[in-house]
Each structure stands twice: as structure tokens, then as C-alpha cells.
What we know:
Blueprint lengths: L9 H4 L3 E10 L9 E11 L5 E10 L10 H7 L13 H19 L3 E6 L2 H14 L7 E8 H9 L4 H7 L12 H21 L12
Parallel strand pairs: 1-4, 4-5
Antiparallel strand pairs: 1-2, 2-3
Helix pairs in contact: 5-7
Amino acid sequence: MAEKSDLNALSGRFRGFYPVVIDVETAGFNAQTDALLEIAAITLKMDSRGWLQQDETLHFHVTPFEGAQLQPEALAFNGIDPYNPLRGAVSEYEALHAIFKMVRQGIKAQGCNRAVIVAHNANFDHSFVMAAAERAKLKRNPFHPFATFDTAALSALVLGQTVLAKACASAEIAFDSQQAHSALYDTYKTAQLFCELVNRWKRLGGWPITDNNSC
């Protein structure tokens, strides 16, 4: 358990984990075969009173890797034209290299040990990040290889909702369905939701853990 002086520090809140909110837009459901098309990442920090808030943001449109499959149903759903030159897309390597650098800097600055992906239905986003990092041969992946913080599960517990838009509505966070399925917008809303869930637990008296309720 963190020392009293650490209870308002990010490093003391999640057992040394550094939470990073991620959302991806893809050309299918298979991380090994389907293209990663868009990714956004938002790091988090705590203020001097221990309230969780957003910190830095990165967002990239991504060029499909060589041989990637593009499922028509997925492209119709997210409205992405993978080869539109106006996207300004970069390679998986460029996108993840920049995100990993930002995350590693945040881990060091916050005194944490390792990053953990926060996402809505997190296994999906985690699988695409890990597959892309492997394809790009990025050796210094700061994210835990299997642990995630899933806001769908947390929202089910706290709000009785599992859909991002409905969870945001229940938490009184504005959500524009017209902007949904953009990696940047969904990451921003997921970050708002995660911060609200964590901060709500603090407001309710569940954090910091005291000797009286730690049994």
C-alpha cells in the first residue's frame, strides 16, 4: 500500500501502473490480419488533491500495413477511406513510436512502473496495439502485455451501462453520436468517463483506503 504522502500521486493510485487511454479504428476485428487505420492516446495525471484528469494527447491516421485486409463492413461502419491522401496517414511504426515515447516519458515523470491501456472493451484496442507493435518491431513497448483497465466493465459496475454513449449519458458527460467512431473523439470521451469513475469513487469515500475499511 502507498505511503500517506503518495495517496494523491498517480504512482500511488494504481499500484504503480500508469493508465493511458487508447482508442483505435480498424478495418476489421482480427488484429493479426486487419488494418489499423487510426489511433489516439491520452495520458492522465493527478492534481495536488488527487483528482484524476487528462494530460497529453496524440492522434494519428495510420496507413494499412502491407498485405492488410480491409473488411468492407468495417469501413462502412467507421466511414474511413484508407487511401484518401487528405488523411495524412503515417506508418504503424511512426504512430506507435511517438505514442510509446510519450508514454515512457509520462511513466518516468509520474514515478510509475509500467503503462496499462485504458479503453472501452479494452481487449480489442489492446490486441491491435500489441499486434501493430510486433509488426513494427518496436522493442520498448511500455504497455503491460495483457492487463487492461476496461471502462465498459467499470461502467457496468458503477453506472449499469456498458455502451460508451449510454455510460457517458448516465455520468452526465455530453456525447455527440455524429462524432463517434473517430479515434480521437472516442478516446477523449473514454478518458472523461474513466476520470469520472475514478473521481466518483473518491468522492464517495472509497479512496484513499483507510484502516477502517481496508479489512
